[in-house]
Write a structure and sequence with these properties.
Structural class: mainly alpha
Helix content: 40-55%
Number of helices: 10
Number of strands: 2
Distance between the termini: 74 Å
Oligomer: single chain
Largest sheet: 2 strands, antiparallel
Number of domains: 3
CATH topology of the largest domain: Zinc Finger, Delta Prime, domain 3
Radius of gyration: 28 Å
Length: about 260
């Protein structure tokens, strides 16, 4: 690595124009770290350490990349890891982004503050819940798409299908056809249908405060709703059958 700039590496400053050296006093080769490793190997170690929840290895890899002038590589990789190797919903993605902003905007990312930010971010990632479910989903759905196309061409049923099947009215997901879809409009499913059926949540249902607001809002709505409609609109969906909509007594007209 021969870029001329002033950076802080391992506690000492490298003046502009002075070549960067490793721990043994030798000039750094391209893509080498100060400890004598390939940055690609250290980056790969970081990802596997995050995936396997090895905090110490993750912290070291972050420190090694940062002190060697590869902070940009660290932050680029961590951004990928949070979507490839961590469980969906982990707020760690926001924390890691905050550490990166501190390191790159407030401080010198090659300085000791930047190294600490990198270590913190790597530790946070390693301590989060690891899973590759999003990666597996992307791979699986892509292969199912190819299988469906091959099955159609061969005139056979596919070995695997998308979880939603053909998405047709009258099927398992019939409730999705409301005023927001072309088929739902043809079925005369307007605002009443969406309110009573399409806007339900679950399976835990609305919060106590949310339910109170919703009931009062329905009381004040221009369209009148029966007690049965209001109760159904706020009833949580069945955890064992999330898409079924049991029939309830409703006015003949959607606009009633």
């Amino acid at each position: 690595m021969s870029e001329d700039r002033q950076v802080t590496l391992g506690g000492g400053e490298v003046e502009e124009g002075e070549p960067m050296t490793d721990d043994f006093g030798e000039e750094l080769d391209e893509n080498a770290t100060k400890g004598g490793y390939s940055r690609y190997d250290v980056s790969s170690l970081l990802q596997k350490a995050v995936r396997r929840s090895d905090e110490e290895c993750a912290a070291w890899a972050a420190w090694e990349l940062t002190r060697s002038g590869y902070a940009w590589n660290l932050w680029d990789r961590l951004a990928l890891y949070v979507v490839e190797d961590l469980r969906a919903g982990e707020e760690i993605v926001l924390l890691i982004e905050r550490y990166e902003r501190l390191a790159t905007e407030r401080w010198d990312d090659d300085g000791w503050e930047g190294r600490l930010c990198g270590i913190h971010a790597a530790l946070a990632a390693a301590r989060a819940t690891s899973t590759r479910e999003a990666t597996y989903a992307d791979e699986y759905f892509g292969r199912v798409a190819a299988e469906r196309a091959a099955a159609r061409e061969a005139g056979r049923d596919p070995s695997y299908d998308f979880p939603v099947g053909d998405l047709e009215p009258g099927g398992q997901y019939d409730v999705i056809f409301d005023q927001h879809t072309y088929e739902g409009k043809k079925m005369d499913r307007g605002g009443r249908y969406f309110t009573v059926h399409g806007a339900r949540v679950g399976p835990t249902g609305e919060s106590e405060l949310g339910e109170r607001w919703r009931r009062r809002s329905l009381d004040l709505a221009e369209r009148s709703y029966s007690d049965a409609e209001r109760d159904h609109a706020l009833a949580p969906v069945d955890s064992d059958d999330r898409w079924s909509e049991p029939p309830i007594d409703e006015p003949d007209s959607d606009d009633a």
